[in-house]
Hints:
It is built from eleven helices and 17 strands. By secondary structure, the protein is of the alpha+beta class. It folds into two domains: 16-30 and 313-420, Jelly Rolls, CATH 2.60.120; 37-279, CATH 3.40.525.10.
Amino acid sequence: MAQNDSNPTPPPEPHVAAEPITEDLVQDKEEEDDSSKIVIPVPESESLSLKEDSNRVSDSEKNAIDELKKLLKEELEDEEVSIWGVPLFKDDRTDVILLKFLRARELKVKDALVMFQNTLRWRKDFNIDALLDEDLGDHLEKVVFMHGHGREGHPVCYNVYGEFQNKDLYHKAFSSQDNRNKFLRWRIQLLERSIRHLDFTPSSGINTIFQVNDLKNSPGPAKRELRLATKQALQLLQDNYPEFVAKQVFINVPWWYLAFYTMINPFLTSRTKSKFVFAGPSKSPDTLFKYISPEQVPVQYGGLSVDFCDCNPDFTMSDPVTEIPIKPTTKQTVEIAIYEKCIIVWELRVVGWEVSYNAEFKPDVEDAYTVIIQKATKMSPTDEPVVSNSFKVVELGKLLLTIDNPTLKKKRLLYRFKIKPYSD
């Protein structure tokens, strides 16, 4: 199933200064146990950003594009052909499309020509144009879904294998060849619709998708029907959707999947392996935040995306989140200075919790009483993932949000706030 940003708004009103009392976001000097995360070695090109790597075109690639274009014009004999909304030979976006096929065939022009011709034939047989508008239901919308963008602007696709623990859903998707074919059409439809939103502009467009594969509670290799459907889907995606993945991040990875990957690793190209990242449960949020900002990450994966929780409606995905590391056995206070009467709203979470949290307001007036907004409360991993609150400020002062981390593990605090005016 898994196949190969919005610009954040500026900080809230200028009358508010948010200055966390903390060091810069840096790694602890002491080494952490990294056994739950395996990162595949990458070639030199990986030092580029995902966008730069996708858009960089070498001289040999330019020559191969020109040669493939010439052969295609001869084969098609002036036939008008469009693919993924791009009319071939009508504008420069054609070069971006053809380069995907060339890279998939290691710049072997004749092999890329055959692949492209087979894709055009398959798209016609599969009736892709009609598939775009076909009503296939919404029962699989939690299995594979598009949500948010990566730090470099790539749309993010989540594949949630654990949803197939639902026996009714599993049966409906895989119990027969007809059901598996329907599932495949649904998966291809979602991919086609997503591709239509990509930008194939040479040198500057975002023309790949960031894939997140959640293997938590995955049925695993014992499910024969799932293996058959996955194999069929992967083959179609590999044959007809080359170079559409910017990165493949696997989270909540169990041991058996790493064993499976070890077996297939020798058969993968260096370019393919460079796109793979694996993370166990404890490292999954940190791994996602490396590529996707927290306000774009769904709550179930450690973020603050409002589309996936009953969070404060004052916030949207465009409201940036501040990240602060909290070292083991330390207390961290975020201080927000407020210079006008207002209502301040905020939300925060600590990934994994196991900390205490309290909030208070300290007026600037000397000898004034500190107002306790939230008394110190122990927060466990089973509590609500996001804490949301508000406070009416009637005198100038500071909002203090304090996290006490008594554990021996480094924690990550995520928070954001807004100022709302009010009249007496």
